[in-house]
Amino acid sequence: MSAARPLTALRTLAVAATLPLLLTACGYGSRSTDDGKQTPAAAAGAEKLSADQVKIGYFPNLTHATALVGVQEGLFQKELGGTTIKASTFNAGPSEIEALNAGSIDIGWIGPSPAINGYTRSGGKNLRIVGGSASGGVKLVVDPKKIKSLKDVKGKKIATPQLGNTQDVAFLNWIADQGWKVDPQSGKGDVSVVRTDNKITPDAYKSGSIDGAWVPEPTASKLVAEGAKVLLDESSLWPGKKFVITNIIVSQKFLKEHPDVVEAVLRGSVRTNAWINANPEKAKASANSALQKLSGKALPAAVLDPAWKSIAFLDDPLASTLNTEAQQAVTAGLLEKPDLKGIYDLTPLNKVLKAEGKGTVDAAGLGAQ
Questions:
Q1: pLDDT attached to residue 166
Q2: How far, in Å, CA of 240 to CA of 255, rounded?
Q3: Is residue 265 a contact partner of residue 348, using CB atoms and an 8 Å limit?
Q4: Exposed/middle/buried for residue 79 (C-beta within 10 Å: 0-12, 13-18, 19+)
């Protein structure tokens, strides 16, 4: 996935037609769940900030562990004082963006594709990215009996979560870098790209209907538990082995009206990431416990352990990689070139980072004025 590869003159589709396809980051359906019962109550007598409540959203997914752990361990609530948290979980990007637009949530953890498209679809008026949360956690896993090297991927059936989602775009870009050709809409060509919901990808692999998958965790490790082999970790294709998989977004209205609340949530995120990185085993157990409460089933160690190791939790939104991912969608013919100027407002995050004695982060020229 070379960031330096120039954009080619591929056919681009109308934005209105492609955006609904591009809105999913790690699609698991579109259902949302109110998880207020799992949220720690505000301390009695604690001082409220400018809002009585902040409504946050995230996925029941390891790549959203900052939110899972921060809510479960009360680290966000500690920073918010008497302002309470109402948490909701979502299984795909479109429903979370819809909730943000409708005011059902104020702040959310979400992948790069829905953030890009939520911003461009609204003409830059509905959201800002205010922080990073996670990097990595995406792998190409294959049937070792059918695919023994990267060149063997040609001619095989490889699953991605959904047409135009973050992993689908990454895989199409990697295919192009090999000199192979695939029609981005049908998935047909030198490689058969089979768009398959992550929920059923393990069954598709077991049945032999796919030969491998370019998927996020924990789906990748679920396939490995079924006998698949990791052929490529996507992080190896990026400078410094880092690329954005989860961002923090906020509605522009909420950011304008309640900057102190946004700052408190970001401080909670920074301190949660610090706790995760200082206590990886405890944090892994906390995230799994949260997943069990939300889904009714914890991840087994054979899936949890390798999945957790492949995800880096950080505060930097890795803005340059988001811009590259957008360019890759353009190159694949799935998106007209978007204007992302103003998608970031990292002022509150940098204020928090400075106060914590940490280095500030950069918007890669895409910051709000």
A1: 86
A2: 31
A3: no
A4: buried
List, for residues 297-343, the tens digit of each pLDDT value: 999 999 999 999 999 999 999 999 999 999 998 988 888 889 999 99
**Within the chain, what is the greatest distance between any pair of CA atoms?**
64
Determine the pLDDT at residue 21: 40
What the block records as the tokens of 240 is 């410094």
Question: What residues are paired with 216 via a beta bridge?
Answer: 138
Both tokens assigned to 367 = 């910051």
Does residue 300 have a cis bond before it (omega within 30 degrees)? no
Nearest to 113 by CA among 249, 240, 264: 249
In which residue are the tokens 């009360």 written? 74
In angstroms, the CA 318 to CA 247 distance is 9
Q: DSSP label at 92?
A: S
Cβ-based neighbours of 200, under 8 Å, separated by 6 or more: none
Six token digits for residue 144:
């070792």
Measure the CA–CA gap between 67 and 90, rounded to whole angstroms. 12
Report the run of H or E that residue 84 belongs to, with start and end: strand 84-90
Contact by Cβ (8 Å): 87, 35? yes
Burial-class residue 358 by CB neighbours within 10 Å (0-12, 13-18, 19+). Answer: middle
Gyration radius of the chain over CA positions: 20
* Distance between CA atoms of residues 173 and 187, nearest Å: 13
Q: Which residue has the tokens 């920074």?
A: 270
- Rounded to whole angstroms, the Cα distance separating 163 from 18 reads 10
Question: 181-188 long-range CB contacts below 8 Å, 24 or more apart?
Answer: 184/332, 184/333, 184/334, 187/163
Q: Residues of the chain whose pLDDT is less than 70?
A: 1-45, 369
The closest alpha carbon to 332, from 213, 214, 181, 198, belongs to 181
pLDDT in tens, 128-158: 999 999 999 999 999 999 999 999 999 999 9
